[in-house]
Amino acid sequence: MQVALWNVSKCAFHFSSVINTTARCVCVRFLSTYKTSHRQSIMSTVSTPPILHAFDEFRHYDTADYNFHVGAPHPDELMQLSRVIQQTVQDIRAVPSEVQSSYFQYGATKGSDSVLQHLAAFLTQEYRAPVNWQNLMMTAGASHALGLVCNVFFGDHDGVVFLEDPTYFLAAEIFRGFGLKVIPIPKLDNEQYDFPLWKRRLDEGLHGIRADGHFRGLIYIIPLHSNPRGRCLSPEEAAALARFAADENLVIHCDDVYNSLSYTGSIPPRLFPVGSHPNVISAGTFSKILGPGLRVGWLESTKENIDRIALNGIIESGGCANQFGASLIDRMFLNGLLQTYVKNTRNLYKEKMRLAVSILSEHLPNNVIWHKPQGGYFIWLTFPEDYEEFLTNVLVPEAKRRNVHFQLGSRSCASRFCNGLRSTDDAYTCTSGCQNSIRLSIGHLGLSQLPEGLKILCDIIKKR
Ligand SMILES: Cc1ncc(COP(=O)(O)O)c(C=O)c1O
């Protein structure tokens, strides 16, 4: 709460500088008093530094560390963003008052026409395929979007979610929060989808699935540069999945958070008929291409689906999920700073990934299986099966001792979330090698830190 207040007051401070100087003086005085008392109150109760962001909660967080664990931008990148935001806030001074004041009003449920139209133009350029602004609504990020979809489509009846194994571990937590039953997508040994088994499961009425006009369930996937494997679906896999979803009345939720971080020249062509097929929803976010603290993202689907989501009680009550954040984004589209920032971020991350791949290619032993990602944040390393204990008991502590952090693959294992949710009738075992894999994120390291961190990691791996 204190941190939230501090952030709000920081924001108030920035905005006050463009409104008038008297207000600014008052604000500065308030802030310096607040800042001192805020620090004092925290210092008097705890001996550790105040918590400013999510990763402070880990308690071992240090920006000097080689942090391959965190899937978020480096603080230096966020300082670049801060400068762009400051410049954009300055621009607000020239905005007509009826528009300026609207930034602080309850927002239209989907967001203003202006931000939706600019977002559609941006996405049309990114995807090199038309995006219709009437198929969009603003959200407070991809996590919020997923919560909305679960709430709107599965809030009032039993729901089931099919997901890839391994998967984005926090998405599974969102499903758990809605009491949805989580099941790994049935796959054959060669990693192809096992549609006959999948269909049998649905038809047998297993897992309490009903066919009464609602979507029967949700398929959660990260089609491009996935978390945690850094993989992309092939067009053939996507087409088969889309056919199956349409035939079985399942809705595909594409967590499209890494699309703009494609490093091969342009974003691959869209894999699903987003906007034209009612069984497909896409969630995008500015968290990875600007900063997660902004809490702005979007949903794209057919107009009918978007209209239905926008009728959600929470959206109706509060209006646009983050009206001020969406308005800032709108200004950044207008002054062109957003487009430039995304281009620079993409180039920086492309270079980080190139460097990481070249170091791993040179230093990883041959028995580690991995592939070179074409985009996104993550590299997934799979070790021989008998490495499980080594990873947990040697690699993690030894790497930590040398200030290198990463995530164990077991954290992303979908089967962890499948057992004991609403029923214990099925037990799922992990078949995807999560237990003997690790996930590396390139997001949170500076370019200059990356080689040393990876060499230390490979050095420890080679000692086994
Ligand atoms: C696949 C995936 N979805 C969603 C998120 C969270 O996105 P947001 O910050 O927009 O809620 C992340 C962040 O790590 C992610 O990897």
Characterize this entry briefly.
The protein has 16 helices and twelve strands.
Give your account of this protein's structure:
Helix 1 runs antiparallel to helix 2 and helix 3 (75-92) packs antiparallel against helix 13. It is globular and about 65 Å long. The chain is built from 16 helices and 12 strands. Mean pLDDT is 87; it is low at 1-36 and 420-425. It folds into 3 domains: 1-50; 98-338, Aspartate Aminotransferase, domain 2, CATH 3.40.640.10; 340-462, Aspartate Aminotransferase, domain 1 (Alpha-Beta Complex). A 7-stranded mixed beta sheet has the order 2-8-7-6-5-3-4, with helices on both faces. It is an alpha/beta fold. The chain has helices at residues 2-19, 21-45, 75-92, 97-102, 113-127, 142-154, 169-177, 195-203, 235-248, 303-310, 313-318, 323-335, 337-363, 388-401, 415-418, 450-462, and strands at residues 66-67, 136-139, 160-163, 181-184, 217-221, 250-255, 280-285, 297-300, 378-382, 404-405, 407-408, 437-441.
Keyword list:
alpha/beta, Aspartate Aminotransferase, domain 2, Aspartate Aminotransferase, domain 1, single chain, 464 residues, disordered N terminus, seven-stranded mixed sheet, 16 helices, 46% helix, binds pyridoxal-5'-phosphate, three-stranded antiparallel sheet
Broad structural category: alpha/beta
Task: Tell me the distance between the termini.
Answer: 46 Å
The total tally of domains equals 3
Q: What overall form do the CA principal axes indicate?
A: globular
- H/E element string? HHEHHHEHEHEHEHEEEHHHHEHEEHEH
Secondary-structure map with pairings?
Layout: H1 2-19, H2 21-45, E1 66-67, H3 75-92, H4 97-102, H5 113-127, E2 136-139, H6 142-154, E3 160-163, H7 169-177, E4 181-184, H8 195-203, E5 217-221, H9 235-248, E6 250-255, E7 280-285, E8 297-300, H10 303-310, H11 313-318, H12 323-335, H13 337-363, E9 378-382, H14 388-401, E10 404-405, E11 407-408, H15 415-418, E12 437-441, H16 450-462
Parallel strand pairs: 1-10, 3-4, 3-5, 5-6, 6-7
Antiparallel strand pairs: 2-8, 7-8, 9-12, 11-12
Helix pairs in contact: 1-2, 1-3, 3-12, 3-13, 5-12, 13-16
The protein binds pyridoxal-5'-phosphate.
Pyridoxal-5'-phosphate is lined by residues 71, 141-143, 168, 222, 227, 255, 257, 285, 287, 292, 297.
